[in-house]
Structure prediction request, 355 residues.
Amino acid sequence: MTATHTSDVAATLEQVNALHAAGAGVVRIAVDSKKDAAALPEIRGGSQANLAIDLQENYRLAAEVAPHVDKLRYNPGHLYHHEREKPWQEKVKFIAGIAGEHDCALRVGVNCGSVDPDKKAQFAEDDSIGPMLASALEHCELLDSLGFTRYAVSLKDSDPAKVIEVNKRFAEQRPDIPLHLGVTEAGMPPDGIIKTRIAFEQLISRGIGDTVRVSLTVPNSRKGEEIAAARQILDDIAAGRVRSVVDFGRESLNIISCPSCSRVENEAFIELAEEVKRMTEYAKDHAITIAVMGCRVNGPGETDDADLGLWCGPTHVNLKKRSAELGAFAYDEILPRLRAELDKLIEGRAAATSS
Prediction:
């Protein structure tokens, strides 16, 4: 996925072609505005890559982008952000109609941090897999009823174990539907590659998965590392070199962070994620999850499950403890506040254990 602002044609085209040259079979671009959509004809004309568009929150942009791309991706949880009074079924019917008219494939992208709110309400608060699975199956049923069959599904979480479980359960019920695999917000290398490897090895070795994406928190100039990591993992699986018998991160510090993309409003997010990793090294033996998210689209929801979460805006970083908001702080103020909360969390757990 590109990490440039799509409206910046030169920068986006440079990254699209770099990813294509690195071996990406599909390059995904985010479109969140008419200005982004207006840039697509020139991007399309300057690249031979297969282009997929992430429709973000404005599903109606499908009509403007479909003539210039090969695939449309929508997130069921984002369909509620516009025209809230309109049933989601009508919105999907619109997207599928546009896709059919322009010979585009579809991807139903279900993400742990932005699940259909109606589906979340139907399951226990600690069940994050149930709502994702139910949402994906429901959208598949609707697309089938519309006679639209050129679609794939992705079910992504930052926890490799949940990625494995939800995709196994989906494949058992709908083995006919192609699955796109990925561990979202996998974080920085090498940890992000290890998490992704665990999920891919366990699923692909069972015959589950058709396309893959490795999501790493790296600067724009290093986005090609995601392709190289994916190719290496797939080559190892094909050769029988699997390594995921290890238990990764269950009793140690776990930092999750999203890959940089065009939604990031301050590129300092990447440097912040690296600083968080360095600063929290002292807590490496504590089973605590810290999430560092780069945007306001998925950041608020995807930090809810972390012990401590940071989601980054243009000028401030929002600090959370699970779903509780702890305040917004400037980028140069956030690390001491995070450390103070981390210390309190460690002290509280130690006191609970000794009592």
About this structure: The chain has twelve helices and twelve strands.
